[in-house]
Specification:
By secondary structure, the chain is mainly alpha-helical.
């Protein structure tokens, strides 16, 4: 299950039982991950057409979105919920970092 769907399911399951600030943070994370998926899909399309340099800002923005979600949860949540998201964010950032390195290598080629 992708992270945006995971957050959405968790949010729906606990709707009304969390602190409003945590619910708002989770909602923001869902939006950020939905945007990230869209950015990655766009990046794949444009990279397949040879536009590698234009992808770097998008991949960096995607990484920043994951970091923003992580920071928001760290500030508002804590505990087990934050740890689950922290792991998912770490995996996502590693994938994005790898994509960024590949794009940078393609630009140099």
């Amino acid at each position: 299950m992708n992270t945006a769907a995971f957050i959405g399911r968790c949010s729906a399951a606990v709707a009304g039982s969390l602190d409003p600030a945590v619910e708002q943070c989770l909602s923001k994370c869902v939006d950020q991950y939905a945007n990230a998926v869209e950015q990655v899909e766009t990046s794949i399309t444009t990279a397949s057409m040879g536009d590698y340099g234009g992808r770097r800002p998008w991949v960096r923005a995607t990484i920043a979105d994951a970091e923003s979600c992580e920071e928001g949860l760290r500030m508002e949540a804590g505990g087990g919920d934050q740890m689950v998201m922290s792991h998912r964010n770490k995996v996502f950032r590693l994938l994005c970092d790898t994509a960024l390195r590949i794009v940078e290598l393609l630009v140099l080629a």
